[in-house]
């Protein structure tokens, strides 16, 4: 079976790997920058009762969930563009996402975009804007930057290594099927 159809298997495998390499190389790289904010009671609040209420409120997580929605608001992109002194249209290809790190009072802000340095600048601008917005909504809480965003060194998308690994695995499977199918077609039919 393999002696007759090995060439077809190699063609199928080569096509799978070659086409994957081609299409992966044609995709624009996307870089991710991440910053983190920690939410704490505001130290300017003088009443001990207010501080205790603030801690109890943080335990219920609704305030954190509200704060995590701020970076994803439609108004965030123009606000970040203004902070960076850039045109909003220039930043339209960037995506901002935020989430609460489980079992913490930490908000993680991710920015994905084609330029790693600008993605990091946007993440830091979104964090500053989130801090300002949250402070105006709930004065008993404050946020401080736990980790500033740094430019990514490797794109998160596409991942050539992963894409080629999957292409080899699926290509080998398809090659095996092609060789098997060719053998079934070329095998002489024995009539008894």
Stated plainly, the CATH topology of the largest domain is called Alpha-Beta Plaits
The pLDDT mean sits at 88
- Number of domains as seen in the coordinates: 2
Largest sheet: 4 strands, antiparallel
Roughly what fraction of the amino acids lie in strands?
A: 15-25%
Order of helices and strands: HEHHHEEHEH
- Per DSSP, the total helix count is 6
How are strands sequenced across the largest beta sheet?
A: 2-3-1-4
CATH structural architecture of the largest domain: 2-Layer Sandwich
Contiguous runs where pLDDT drops below 50 for at least 5 residues: none
Estimated radius of gyration: 27 Å
Give the % helix.
Answer: 40-55%
The CATH homologous superfamily of the largest domain:
EIF_2_alpha
Shape summary:
elongated
Tally the beta strands.
Answer: 4
Task: Supply the CATH class of the largest domain.
Answer: Alpha Beta
Q: Helix/strand/pairing class, anyone? A: alpha+beta
| Separation of the first and last Cα atoms | 22 Å
Question: What would you say this structure looks like, in words?
Answer:
With 192 residues, this protein is α+β, with helices and mostly antiparallel strands. It has two domains: 53 residues; 117 residues, Alpha-Beta Plaits (2-Layer Sandwich), CATH 3.30.70. It is built from six helices and four strands. Strands 2-3-1-4 form a four-stranded antiparallel β-sheet. α1 runs antiparallel to α6 and α4 packs across α5. The longest helix is centred in the last third of the chain and has 27 residues. The chain is elongated. The mean pLDDT is 88.
């Amino acid at each position: 079976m393999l002696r007759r159809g090995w060439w077809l298997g190699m063609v199928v495998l080569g096509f799978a790997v070659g086409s994957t390499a081609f299409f992966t190389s044609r995709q624009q790289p996307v870089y991710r920058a991440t910053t983190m904010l920690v939410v704490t009671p505001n130290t300017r609040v003088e009443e001990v009762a207010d501080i205790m209420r603030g801690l109890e409120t943080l335990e219920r997580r609704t305030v954190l969930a509200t704060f995590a929605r701020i970076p994803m608001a439609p108004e965030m992109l123009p606000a970040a563009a203004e902070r960076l002194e850039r045109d909003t249209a220039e930043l339209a290809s960037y995506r901002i996402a935020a989430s609460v790190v489980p079992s913490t009072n930490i908000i993680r802000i991710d920015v994905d975009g084609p330029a790693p340095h600008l993605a990091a600048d946007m993440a830091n601008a979104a964090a500053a804007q989130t801090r300002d917005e949250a402070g105006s909504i709930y004065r008993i809480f404050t946020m401080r930057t736990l980790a500033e965003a740094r430019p990514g060194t490797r794109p998160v998308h596409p991942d050539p290594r992963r894409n080629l690994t999957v292409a080899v695995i699926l290509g080998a499977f398809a090659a095996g099927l092609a060789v098997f199918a060719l053998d079934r077609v070329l095998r002489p039919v024995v009539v008894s």
